[in-house]
Amino acid sequence: MSCTGWPDGPSLAERLPGRLAPAAPVLVTATEDDPITPSAWTADLGARIAGSHVLIAPVAGHGALDNAPCAADAIDTYLATGALPPEEKCRNGTGNPSRSPGGDARSR
């Protein structure tokens, strides 16, 4: 089914290449209990981007930046330096940094 005036055809997912290979590493973030975008979609996107790092914060809410301090810290660092977070980032179950006991950069 299509909306009036929109052409029928393959979905966006069907039109995208099966795998991307960007020049720089890509950070893909989500929350575990996002009511709008399932974290499984985030994992699928990460699997399609070579060299990507998927960070799924163990909190609820739409969007990791505003809902998980550990993800916000990882995003800030990634945007400032290009460094991807360690694998265990956000895995302590609280959404707070598992390796940064002082809290995230926004609280300092």
TrEMBL record:
Protein name (database record): Esterase/lipase
Region (Disordered): 84-108
Pfam family, one: Abhydrolase_4
Location of the Peptidase S33 tripeptidyl aminopeptidase-like C-terminal domain: 1-88
